[in-house]
Amino acid sequence: MTHIALIGYGRMGREIERLSHDYGMPVVSVIHPSHLNPAKREISAESLGDAEVCLDFSASSAVLDNARSVAENGRRLVVGTTGWSSQLRELQEIAAQNSAGQNNFGVIYSPNFAIDVNLFFRIVEHGAALMGMLETTEPYVVELHHRRKADSPSGTARRLGEIVQRGMPRMNAANYERASGAMPENTFHVASARGGYIPGTHTVGLDNPYGTVEITHTARSREGFARGALEAAHWIRNRTGLYTMDDMIDSMIAGRAAQRRD
Known about the structure:
alpha/beta; 6-stranded parallel sheet; Dihydrodipicolinate Reductase, domain 2; Rossmann fold; 11 strands; 8 helices; 5-stranded mixed sheet; 2 domains
């Protein structure tokens, strides 16, 4: 049984708590700035208790401080907060400084922990590479989310932009800002819309003069994200260093291949 702590207690934190016992991973601590118990407002040995893995779904501005505190207390960390990717180098340094010795710090991060979304990423990469063989193909990314979502475009949409660029190297840049006027040559748009209660819909379009291929993932609820985060907590609990969901998916694929060989 792995004990977990929640850093932040918004909609995702509550969904993780609801599902945690399905995974034999009880929530033993909830830490957030407005907690009624002052001792639970910051990360410390006392507030973490016997939690082995922390799941951070708080605010982008707090990610690095949270990671330092978790590392100093010798726990593992799952980072599901988005909007902090420009600070990845600092997280890499925290992991490098704390993964060996007494702390044994391990961290896994992703803009989206849903397993099916991470498989969707791989489908998109292959699709972009295949359709990119047609020199006339031009991509686009469109994402829809509920009106309360703070970051725009979503972390998942930014990741899709990176994946499309990797699959279609002739695309020099992705435009993540609001489009104004014509799109420059070899640049594609990553567009966002906010409204209603949409958990998340992401579409990658691969368009040419003769037809359009669209690859879409539609989330039905936050449950898929929460279950993926709990899977990631289970995966990171005995590892040290810095990992992404790509590492976890590679591990899952290798494990499935080994089962087939047996």
